[in-house]
Design brief:
The complex is a heterodimer of chains A (about 300) and B (about 350). Chain A is mainly alpha-helical. Chain A is built from 12 helices and 3 strands, in the order H-H-H-H-E-H-E-H-H-H-H-H-H-H-E.
Chain lengths: ~300, ~350
């Protein structure tokens, strides 16, 4: 049971980072289809940065920079040039896939991808709490980025609900004219939100490559960015609810792995479809009454 | 620096966000975008310590150096041309269908299921399989449309989410009813010979390319010379105007989505019958997403999508030679595709 929950937490952590970033972007009014590319760039930069510098901290930092760079690209084209958000996001994903595969091979100097093997980040037991029975090993002996995602959830929830900047950000997604009328610049808010989204989703990629696998392979995010997008829809654009949705998807996957190991015939493909179908069901159930930010995807023009 | 409040009146575009700025100079802008992305790619090649001219030369030779290579490039072009034309028609109507990926995938399932279930004679087997592929693609697009119109969910979310369900569905049917037992990986048995597409001797190009060109020409006719095409264009430039002119928006959405779904499904069927001759896990990977690139590159005009898809098809077909002969990773092509699309998006969207 403990093993099962630990697996669920492990699967959910990268998704949670991406979902948190996505919430920031979507609440500001820009669809976060580019999460996949931001995660992939982060995963790549984390491994390469650590490999170059020998310091995992530098790798994590580079992951946020790489994710933010993809975010800047999406923001420039989708917000400044007013291109369609989702087509732009899709483009960023294609570009990130191409760039990471290309650079991985260039680093090795030939046609073959460079082989980097790092030791995945070790767990940091929290003194005292780690010795609790059951809960201790499960919750308080985790690698550093897993603690960070919980902190991130808390901070994002507080930011959105209780700060002036959070209010401005939400208003940019609901009623950008009001932000403008109040003296703010919704265009700038959206740009910054998408860049921040990239940095946070980049951390999700770092979790995957640096904390869980220890290497980078082509397209290693394997659709997790889209899964995070589904989670934040299921969680109705609320940080805690989206994190819970990620955890549920993680549990479903962990459960399926366990059932298979006991020889119970369960189709992993059907299990993997569940998040997307659930997201569709939530969207269909909500209809227009949804919590979808009212002005999401609407280009803004200042003249 | 923030501009003073009074000088920054701001407009939010309500309703449909997507509109390509279709006016004179568009072709020039698109060519400029392609040129820019190739320049960026050349810089990346130089960065890797290779000569860009040599790399692009090897790519060109790899794409058109021999009849066989030309055939391979044409085959590669086919799914982009078919799916891209369908996507273009949707975009013309202001409907952002990014579900081609999933529609291609279920098209492959449809073609395989028909070919394996009904062992017909030669011309009928191909026709039945392709029809089944198109029907499967249309049904898949129909799901997205039903949720979009019925529950007022943005079509981009319904089409996007259903892509992943479709890709998993391919794996599911290959692990189950359509799979080849004991193959070691997910694939169907080889399809009966009668269902294979005709291939041109020595070139190896399959007849699907001709189907795609004919389809693009017909779609261009539909777009510019029929009432339906006119309605699409009106709806794309102004929904209220379309409604005022008496066009039913839901009917229009249904028709163009089913049409695009059928085209993408057909693309999947052709890929299965013409290239692999069996259903393979991941056979559709990326075609549907890149069909959006191709549609924009072709300025949403089916006839212009012919050169646009050829551009992508030739790039991809030539990339492996480039990697083999010059040592520049073939992933460079994906970078070029992504950059091209980004520049096209930035250069062609509307200035209201």
């Amino acid at each position: 049971m403990t093993e099962f929950l630990a697996a669920a937490i492990r699967i959910a952590t990268p998704l949670m980072f991406a979902a948190l970033g996505g919430i920031l972007s979507e609440r500001a009014g820009v669809f976060a289809v580019g999460l996949e590319g931001m995660m992939l760039a982060g995963a790549f930069a984390a491994v390469v940065g650590t490999w170059w510098s020998g310091d995992a901290g530098a790798g994590v930092l580079l992951a946020t920079v790489a994710g933010a760079a993809i975010g800047l690209m999406v923001a420039t084209v989708a917000v400044r040039f007013r291109a369609d958000n989702m087509v732009t996001g899709l483009t960023a994903n294609i570009l990130a896939l191409g760039l990471t595969s290309y650079l991985l091979r260039v680093l090795a100097g030939g046609g073959q991808p460079v082989a980097i093997h790092l030791t995945p980040l070790a767990a940091w037991p929290i003194p005292g709490l780690a010795d609790l029975p059951v809960l201790g090993p499960l919750l308080f002996v985790q690698p550093p980025l897993t603690y960070l995602v919980v902190l991130g959830c808390l901070m994002l929830a507080l930011f959105l609900r209780h700060t002036q900047a959070g209010l401005t950000l939400r208003a940019s997604g609901e009623n950008p004219e009001a932000v403008f009328a109040a003296g703010g610049n919704p265009l700038r808010v959206r740009m910054l939100a998408v860049i921040a989204c990239g940095a946070i989703a980049g951390l999700g990629g770092a979790v995957l490559s640096l904390q869980q696998v220890g290497t980078f392979t082509d397209g290693m995010t394997g659709g997790r960015g889209y899964l995070a997008l589904a989670s934040l829809i299921v969680g109705r654009w609320d940080p805690w609810a989206a994190a819970a949705a990620c955890l549920v998807f993680g549990m479903a996957e962990a459960f399926e792995l366990r059932l298979q190991s006991f020889g119970v015939p369960v189709s992993s493909y059907i299990v993997h479809m569940a998040p997307y179908l659930l997201a569709l069901a939530v969207l269909a159930g909500l209809g227009r009454s949804s919590k979808l930010p009212a002005a999401i995807g609407q280009p803004l023009q200042s003249d | 620096m923030m501009a003073p409040v009074s000088s920054l009146p701001i407009t939010a575009f309500k309703g449909r966000a997507f509109r390509l700025q279709l006016r004179e100079g568009l072709a020039g802008r698109i060519l400029l975008a392609v040129l820019l992305s190739i320049l960026c790619a050349a810089a990346l090649v130089a960065l890797s310590g290779h000569n860009p001219v040599e790399a692009f030369g090897a790519m060109a030779v790899g794409a058109v150096g021999s009849p066989h290579q030309i055939g391979a490039a044409l085959n590669r072009t086919t799914p982009y041309l078919l799916a891209g034309s369908g996507v273009a028609l949707c975009f013309r109507a202001g409907i952002i269908n990014i579900g081609a990926e999933g529609q291609i995938a279920v098209g492959g399932i449809g073609a395989t299921a028909a070919a394996l279930a009904f062992p017909l004679d030669a011309p009928f087997a191909v026709a039945a399989s392709l029809l089944s592929a198109a029907a499967a693609g249309a049904v898949w697009a129909g799901f997205a449309t039903a949720i979009h119109l019925g529950r007022r969910v943005h079509e981009v979310l319904t089409t996007l989410l259903l892509n992943f369900v479709a890709l998993l569905l391919v794996q599911q049917v290959l692990a189950g009813p359509l799979g080849q037992f004991g193959a070691g990986f997910l694939q169907s048995p080889e399809l009966p010979r009668a269902a294979w597409l005709w291939r041109m001797p020595s070139f190896g190009a399959h007849s699907g390319f001709l189907i795609a060109v004919v389809a693009a020409a017909s779609l261009s006719f539909v777009l510019w010379r029929t009432r339906f095409g006119f309605a699409l264009r009106v709806a794309g430039s102004s929904r209220p105007a379309a409604a005022y002119a008496g066009f039913s928006l839901p009917r229009l959405t249904w028709s163009v989505m089913l049409l695009a779904g059928a085209l993408a499904g057909l693309a999947g069927g052709i890929e299965v019958l013409g290239v692999h001759r069996r259903l393979i896990e991941g056979f559709s990977l990326g075609f549907g997403f890149k069909a959006v690139t191709v549609a924009l590159l072709g300025a949403l005009e089916p006839l212009a999508i012919v050169p646009a898809s050829l551009f992508v098809g030739l790039l991809e077909a030539g990339s492996l030679s480039m990697q083999r002969q010059v040592g520049v990773p073939s992933a460079l092509v994906v970078v070029i595709e992504g950059l091209t699309m980004l520049f096209v998006l930035a250069a062609t969207v509307r200035r209201a």
